[in-house]
Write a structure and sequence with these properties.
GO terms for molecular function: peptide chain release factor N(5)-glutamine methyltransferase activity. By secondary structure, this protein is an alpha/beta fold. It has 2 domains: 76 residues, Helicase, Ruva Protein, domain 3; 192 residues, Rossmann fold, CATH 3.40.50.150. Helices cover 40% and strands 19% of the residues. The protein is built from 13 helices and 9 strands. The strands form 2 sheets. A 7-stranded mixed β-sheet has the order 5-4-3-6-7-9-8, with helices on both faces. Helix 2 crosses helix 3 and helix 7 crosses helix 8. 40% of the residues are buried.
């Protein structure tokens, strides 16, 4: 949206006009959801919902609004994810703050929360939960908010990610959720035991890394994406190390990439887990593998 474009336009930049122009521009640059992207960004600038913009499409933009929107559009045009531009992403019915320090929560990961809740239903009032590779804290905080009497500890290797997670816990009132910097189990107190361990480890294989969409590959933290040659480097280590940290009958539940569930289930079996299950996401992919400590 150059100055010459504005000057030659004749009429004002209204909601309808700016959305049409922006969506067309983003579509040309390969956005998978150009209209939605434009609506979300404009809604952020104007403080309006998508419905409110539909109701009043001829509302003109003030100069400052147009300038702020232009800056956001240029960043989206360059490939920056919408969630980072908005600063928030919804997960399990709650808004989580996100930025480039953390992986953007995906709807598929909500299946990990569902599996964790089901696994601890019989001890819902007193479960002890550990969430590895916690990132924004979306899984740990969701489990804690759904079960306010449980005790949840989120762990991540990245201290930067933990700053975001702690802020989310404070904003969402997750008083029963704490966070610790650690490489997997390395910083836990000796003798600690958990009824549930969840993990969403990095699981993108080396071969698949460069095939990722640019708005993932170039913006989201590679530490949260890179899973090694077969995508299971971190998952393999967690599965091999988890049993001593689980209470008898405790459950390990882990998100895996599409096509990795069979290999992950074999790792669970080799590590001595029973009742190994594979749970599908809404797209039909086997997304979460879980097992019970013998």
């Amino acid at each position: 949206m150059s100055n010459s474009t504005q000057e030659g336009a004749g009429d004002a930049w209204t909601v309808r006009r700016i959305l049409t122009w922006s969506a067309d521009d983003l579509k040309k640059r390969g956005s998978a959801s150009p209209r939605l992207d434009a609506e979300l960004l404009l809604g952020k600038v104007l403080g309006l919902s998508r419905v409110q913009m539909v109701i009043d499409p001829e509302r003109p933009l003030q100069k400052i609004e147009l300038a702020v929107y232009k800056a956001l559009h240029q960043r989206r045009r360059a490939g920056e994810p919408v969630a980072y531009l908005l600063g928030v992403r919804e997960f399990y019915g709650r808004l989580f703050r996100v930025d480039r320090r953390v992986l953007i929560p995906r709807p598929d990961t909500e299946i990990l929360v569902e599996v964790g809740l089901a696994a601890t239903r019989h001890i819902a009032l007193c479960a002890r939960v550990l969430d590895l590779c916690t990132g924004s804290g979306c899984v740990a905080i969701s489990l804690g908010k759904e079960r306010p009497t449980t005790r949840v500890l989120g762990i991540d290797l990245s201290e930067d990610a933990l700053v975001v997670a702690r802020e989310n816990a404070l904003r969402l009132g997750a008083v029963n959720v704490g966070f610790l910097q650690s490489n997997r189990f390395g910083s836990l107190a000796a003798g600690a035991r958990f009824d549930l361990i969840t993990a969403n480890p990095p699981y993108v294989s080396d071969a698949d890394m460069e095939e990722l969409a640019p708005d993932i590959r170039d913006y989201e933290p590679r530490l949260a994406l890179e899973g090694g040659r077969d995508g299971l480097n971190v998952a393999r280590a967690i599965i091999e190390e988890a049993a001593p940290w689980l209470a008898p009958g405790g459950v390990l539940a882990m998100e895996v990439g599409a096509g990795q569930a069979e290999a992950a289930a074999a790792l669970f079996e080799r590590a001595g887990f029973d009742e190994i299950k594979r749970t599908r996401d809404l797209g039909g992919h086997e997304r979460v593998v879980s097992g019970v400590r013998r």
